[in-house]
Amino acid sequence: MSGAAAAVPGYGCTIDELMVVTFSRAMANDTRAFNGAVSFIPVCGYRLARRTHAPELVWAASSIAVDADPAVVGSSTLSDELWGGASMLANSPFDFWTYAQGARYNTFAFRGAQMDAYGNVNNSVIGPYDSPKVRLPGGGGMADLGCMIPRIYLWSSTHDPRTFVDRLHFRSGIGWGDGGDHRASLGMPGGPQLCITNLCVFDFEQESKRMRLASLHPGVSVDDVQAATGFEVLLPGDEVPTTAQPSTEELHILRTEVDPTGARLREF
Amino acid sequence: MPDGATVALGGLSMNSAPMAFVRELVRANKRDLTVVAIVAGMCVDWLVAAGCASRVVAGLVSFEGFGLAPNFRHATQSGKVAMEEYSEHLLICRLQAQARQLPFMPTVAGLGTDVPALHEASGALRIETDAATGRPYVACTPLAVDVAVVHVHEADVAGNARVNPKLIWMDSEIVNAAERTIVTAERIVDTGSFTAEPHRTSYPRFMVDAVCEAPRGAYPTSCFPEYGHDGRFFEDYLGACGSPADFANFFERRVAGPTTWGDFLAANDPQPVGDGGEVGS
Questions:
Q1: In chain B, N or C: fewer CB atoms in 10 Å?
Q2: Is A233 a domain residue?
């Protein structure tokens, strides 16, 4: 299932590595995270952050294995392949869901087959719900955790108009909802912080809660991003910066310790 | 297990599904089953492929990084099998309401999404507002389950059962909700091994109606820490989906055809138990 990722011009790395490092740098030292299915970029990001600038970061592998430190990232991010070195195997119904509902975990990352400008996601159907063109796996915990966790991160290795759409065919998980104060009015904490793609990084404009271009990866233009996005991309007041270059140390740790077998390429 | 029953399957995605039992449902040619599985994969796909399931009640069905569950996908797209979609926690809350005999279990899960509206007409989920605080919540009504089937490491003949370590995914939610529970176990052990270490018991005998010994009974999913999932099986299964004839041949040869569970394992040649398999170091 593994694909290949494009080189980033002038950065001495590939796009998967730039995405992992960008994700890692967004993680503060007080991050308490867990991961769901097919979440190779966030899993690598949490592991890299803990090995670099965020040594106290908590990561529960597959939402179960607290402080896991496996030798490799395997073929599934929900399996026991990831649990080596854990200090606790949390019990799912009672431990995990209580920590999540109480926001004791504060960070979660999800991606959808479709994502909209407010960071809402669809992983249920493409096409009409009752006669879909594609029946997708379902939202799993997205609909739950999107409501419960204050720091939500989105990512996509397929930044194109089919993924970034103006209107979801189904809302499986909530980001900023209808925008503005909609999420807060439902009593939900925080909301989406960043969306990291293979072309750029979006943050969310403070009032409208719509995706706004925060940085462009090297070799990518504003027009490229707009052409690949099915909704109007908001631009910052100033010139759009270039996504920061990964350090030699970050790339070395990612390649030799965090994910030596390149499991992250399963998302490409 | 009568035709038309509602059967809930344990495990999560690539882990600890009661596959030996599911294979017997396939071989017994069961029909019209409603299959409840919170986060599922291969177990649901087998039952759909064999025509046993008419309805799937789930939060997620996939083969994770290996791909979509092919038979589930096509049968639900064509309408041959109904998909009753929940999120993970909305489904857990329906099971908890059933287990505790409550009119509903409240949760904030699913608010602001399109999931609760799928169940407005049936009344299974209702969005309500707490009169005291003004906070909205989803009221999850009880979900009746005829039989739960879960896979464990060890059980005794009385039905005491344990998972090593205490990790049970969400299996206890379906056990607690179901009218009857069937346990498949890697090993049958003496009751003395439970009384010697009662703190390690996962399910007491009064919650378990039947025990079946099924060594390697979760294959091709994992049974941590004794064996990992078999990625090769998932790849071969998906590789056979190119044509209906190829898949029918594969399914007969590698899943439904072998007579005993031992024959089934021999047909699939899994890695020996205890070699570490794909379990992290």
A1: C
A2: yes
B172: which DSSP letter?
H
- Beta-carbon separation of B112 and A172 below 8 A: no
Least Cα separation, residue A20 to chain B (angstroms): 18
Domain of A17, in residue numbers = 7-267
Beta strands in A22-180 (DSSP E): 32-34, 58-61, 65-66, 88-89, 107-110, 114-115, 121-122, 125-126, 134-135, 151-156
Overall domain count for chain A: 1
Tens of pLDDT, residue by residue over A10-44, are: 999 999 999 999 999 999 999 999 999 899 999 99
Overall pTM surpassing 0.90 (yes/no) = yes
The pLDDT assigned to A2 comes to 59
Strands (E), B96-250: 105-107, 125-129, 136-140, 145-155, 161-162, 178-188, 210-213
Confidence grade of residue B169 (pLDDT, cut at 50, 70, 90)? confident
With respect to residue A2, please indicate whether it lies within any of the assigned structural domains.
no
Interface of B with A in 156-215 (CB under 8 A): 165-170, 172-173
Nearest CA in chain B to A189: B108
Give the β-pairing of A13-14 and A7-8: antiparallel
In a domain, A60, yes or no: yes
Asked whether the beta carbons of residue B280 and residue A85 sit closer than 8 angstroms, the reply is yes
ipTM of the complex: 0.91
Residue A93: which of B92, B135, B228 has the nearest Cβ?
Answer: B92
B94–chain A Cβ distance below 8 A for any pair: no
Whichever domain contains A156, its CATH number is 3.40.1080.10
**Least Cα separation, residue B77 to chain A (angstroms):** 6
Concatenating the DSSP letter of every residue in B51-105 gives: T-EEEEEEEEE--GGG---HHHHHHHHHTSSEEEE--HHHHHHHHHHHHTT-S-E
User: Distance between alpha carbon B198 and the CA centroid of its chain, in Å?
Assistant: 26
Query: Which among A134, A141, A266 has the least Cβ separation from residue B65?
Result: A266
Beta-bridged to residue B125, according to DSSP, are: B140
Choose the closest CB to A93 out of B60, B173, B224: B173
Q: Please, are residues B162 and B168 in contact by the beta-carbon 8 Å criterion?
A: no
Topology (CATH level 3) of domain B6-85+144-264: Glutaconate Coenzyme A-transferase (3.40.1080)
pLDDT digits (tens, 9 = 90+) for B83-123: 999 999 999 999 999 999 999 999 999 999 999 999 999 99
- Three-state DSSP class for residue A184: helix
If we measure between CA atoms, which residue out of B43, B65, B17, B68 comes closest to residue B222? B17
Read off the pLDDT of residues B113-131 as tens digits, 9 standing for 90 and up.
999 999 999 999 999 999 9
Residue A1 lies in a domain: no
Domain ranges of chain B: 6-85+144-264, 105-140
